[in-house]
Design brief:
The protein is an alpha/beta fold. The chain contains 9 helices and 19 strands. The protein has helices at residues 6-9, 56-66, 154-167, 182-192, 203-214, 242-245, 268-273, 288-298, 310-319, and strands at 10-13, 16-19, 24-26, 34-36, 49-54, 71-76, 83-85, 88-94, 102-108, 111-115, 137-142, 173-176, 199-201, 222-224, 237-240, 257-261, 278-280, 302-308, 323-326. The chain has a 7-stranded mixed β-sheet, with helices on one face. The chain has a 6-stranded mixed β-sheet with strand order 1-2-3-4-5-6. A 6-stranded parallel β-sheet has the order 14-13-15-12-16-17. β2 and β3 form a beta hairpin. The protein is globular. The structure holds zinc ion (2 copies).
């Protein structure tokens, strides 16, 4: 192992990214002895690790979603707190992706690596903002790494939803959202826009909202949509997991306008294919501009890309004179699709 040769001490094995001098994996795809977990989405936070390290919020998310069997031993770490693990120093800093999401900062023999996990740079009232950490090696995601992806402003997208509600006061608006992160961000953005009516939730979303509230993220009045009378839901906003929106479940709603909040809604064909009438381009991942800007700002001389559309990003990285490498990690099925 040599500190200047990153691939000698950060390796990729069958379970993902492994830090040799620290003896741990980051977001491994299956059970390992020691794991550092960036955030609670299921493609990063898998069950069965012997020891795991994550933020308190991420541990709570994993407990809620995976239950008691999620791990054997765990350690909660606050943002910014430095820990010695084996020969390396590890810190978790905010990634701005969802509640508790973290970048993993690893230092060994004067070299610093940042494993970003999933991240975004745009404002989100439901989680701590992305913190920029200068480093020599930056390991980034690439979910939306094509110039066509520009997420725009979440407030402006939510304004479209509110306008549609005014236009169709007799109809319900059902918005497809992912349960961890997107759901709470859409609610909080509606509240920022002054929307104070109860927001109705599919049963699958209730627990995660309660978790956010327990960490001090105020979401305003929420009501369970299951069991509500059809009449009651006229003119109301109902949030549901994407699968429930196309399903029998939404047929109980009065003449629903179907919306979907996702970075993929930038692609009109995808919205049409899903039968989405009101696409809302809201993403918890960095868009092309944010990826390029973040790489530049870290000052990294080398950039590795974990998963996503890496070709265009690697091409861009090379064009700026940096070394770039696609890790093509397996098992990353983003929830934001
Ligand atoms: Zn994620
Ligand atoms: Zn992910």
């Amino acid at each position: 192992m040599h500190p200047d040769r990153f691939d000698s001490w950060l390796t990729v094995d069958g379970k993902g990214l492994y830090c040799r001098p620290g003896g741990f994996h980051v977001d491994p795809s299956s059970a390992v002895d020691r794991a550092v977990i960036t955030h609670g989405h299921s493609d990063h936070a898998r069950p069965g690790h012997t020891h795991l390290l994550a933020t308190r919020e991420t541990l709570a998310v994993m407990q809620t979603r995976l239950g008691m069997q999620a791990w054997r031993g765990s350690q909660a770490v606050a943002y910014g707190e430095a820990l010695q693990i084996g020969e390396v120093t590890v810190r978790l800093v905010p990634a701005g992706h969802v509640l508790g999401s973290a970048q993993v900062v690893i230092e060994w023999k004067g070299r610093r690596v940042v494993v970003s996990g999933d991240y975004k740079r745009s404002a989100d009232p439901t989680c701590a903002p992305y913190e920029l950490v200068p480093c020599q090696l930056f390991i980034t995601e690439a979910t939306f790494a094509l110039p066509v992806f520009q997420h725009g402003d979440a407030g402006a997208e939510v304004a479209k939803l509110l306008k549609s509600r005014e236009q169709f006061p007799e109809r319900a608006h059902v918005v497809g959202v992912y349960g961890l992160g997107k759901c709470q961000r859409v609610i909080a953005t509606l509240r920022q826009a002054g929307y104070s009516r109860p927001i109705w939730l599919h049963g699958a979303l209730i627990e995660c909202c309660a978790l956010y509230e327990s960490f001090g993220v105020a979401l305003g009045p929420l009501k369970p949509a299951t069991g509500a009378k059809r009449e009651e839901l006229k003119g109301e906003i109902v949030l549901a997991p994407p699968s429930a929106v196309d399903d029998r479940w939404s047929r109980r709603l009065p003449d629903p306008v179907t919306a979907f909040a996702s970075g993929w809604m930038r692609v009109r064909a995808r919205a049409r294919q899903r039968g989405v009438e009101l696409p809302l381009v809201i993403s918890d991942h960095a868009d092309w501009r944010e990826l390029v800007m973040t790489i530049e700002q870290t000052g990294a001389e080398e950039v590795w890309v974990t998963h996503g559309r890496e070709d265009a990003l690697i091409y861009h990285i090379h064009s700026t004179g940096r070394r770039g490498r696609a890790l093509a990690l397996i098992g990353r099925e983003d929830e934001d699709r």
